[in-house]
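Structure tokens please, single chain.
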Amino acid sequence: MSVLRKFLAIALVCAIAVWLATGCVNNNEDDKPPNGGGTQVPTPEPGATPPEGNNDMASIEMARLMGYGINLGNTMESCNQSGRIPNRDPSIYETMWGNPVTTQEMITGMRNSGFKTLRIPVAWTNAMDWENDDFTINEAYLDRVEEIMNYALNEDMYVIVNAHWDHGWWSMFGHPEQERRDFALEMFKAMWAQIADRYKDYDHRLIFEPSNEEWGDRFNDETPYSPSGGVLTRNECYELLTELSQVFVDLVRATGGNNPDRFLLMKGYNTDVKMTLSDRFVMPKDPANRLMLSVHYYTPWGYCGDTSGIGTWGRKTEVEEMNTLLGSLTKFTDQGYGVVLGEWGVLDNDGEDRLTFFTNFLNNCDLYGFAPILWDTGYTPRWGRLFDRNDTLTIVAPELLELFQTRSAARETKTVEQVIAAARDSMDAIRAKAADREETVLSADEAKAWIMFNSGSWDMEYSVGDRYQPEQIAKGIEPTDPEITGEGTYTVALDFTGTSQGYANGIAFSAIGIMNGEILFPGYHIVIRELLINGEEATLEGIPFTTNDNPVTTRLNLYNEWVSKVPPEARIFEGNIDDASPRILANYTSTRITSISITFDYIAP
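Here you go.
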């Protein structure tokens, strides 16, 4: 054990002893209200900022005060997994992914653009030689993060500091060997003990966030640190998230300064709205009752994500999907937890539909008091650049600049009731506009089969997700989507020859979907009879299986990078389920694909 680790262990034990002795922990769980619950939260005055150390402010009030925020993306979390060299000058990492060194003027420009919160993603192991059993965070890196924090605090902004993807070391939590999982936990504790101690005297405007999107299925990621992938079931991943959340809260609360009642931003499962709504997701206990929840929002990914494959948004079902998903998060505000949308945005589309998406998203956040933190990388139009850090130091899209400035000013100067009323009026107008747009909606007694598809270069997509949406299609793709009427033989297909380049560049994700299959034909099997790539019979890796991600759509994964294990709900008509694979087209992830054609039998159980 290193000297630092011995010191941390002793310091943490002592801090906890002091914490317990001073009566900061309520040991009677039956008498403990939920986070922020049990009291009526006063409506804050317009633009109000709570005084330092205000112990009466609930987290739902804090979330509304945080207003609109922006991520300092691809900056302090930049890292190089394949050529990792720790403890270099912080500016090397800060500029590794193409951004300039962060300045006060940049952050001032963000504040002037309408952002009141800055989220700083951080790769802390850039400054940690953990492979050699040394968990010490280099002082220079702690200094540089603090400098950037102060840029924002100088503008009276709120600041979120997290531990981001960071080379993927989180995958050790799902490692097949218990010793490696224990090592990951020890590393996590050492990391946050140092961060919390270093910044403990900052006031309530500084918020700690323990991770990014890794708490959930990605505990089982295949990385250089866990080459064969993890072994945890999904239930075990939920349980581990709960355990780590409690470790984080207990650790930070025990480090003194302002940390005993600092606001902490806890991670939802995969930061996914639906998966976080599961009863398996449990918020940790907190004696300070000052926890907030963080989820991310890129729905639908084909429009929001790193792809130019889908260029439209704003049909009725798309608008209602957003309203329903965001509205469902009131499950947590009803329990007294503030909600932060830690990342959201439209990364690679523009135009009127993007403005409508942004407007309706902010409507929901204004309505429910959420804090939306825009994902932005600053340096390229692709991958989420809206704020120009090099020249103008402002949002590059005039219509979005006006939106953020106007809405942020209203949120800070108008009463909460006025903000809510304006949000509802705008949502009604967007619903009315959406109702005039054509879209395909299946009736309850219709079933359609199709091939969900994302190209390997993420520039072509067709109707990815559990709802059949043929309007979500890259220009030039010709689909074959048969109606399913029961047992029989059907063919689904995609032809890419009419696209601008005449082919799809590999496969990032693909699956056969049958909308309403689980309702109309429960338990049926999809059995592939023939699978052709570019007109030739494909070589399959493993046996496919039939499954479902929801109680509506039947699916068969062709290639799913994010699913490495056969789920427990999988079914197979013939053969051994142990031989099944969610990646049967693994040989074609880099192939130029002009066409995919699949003939399958649909068989009753």
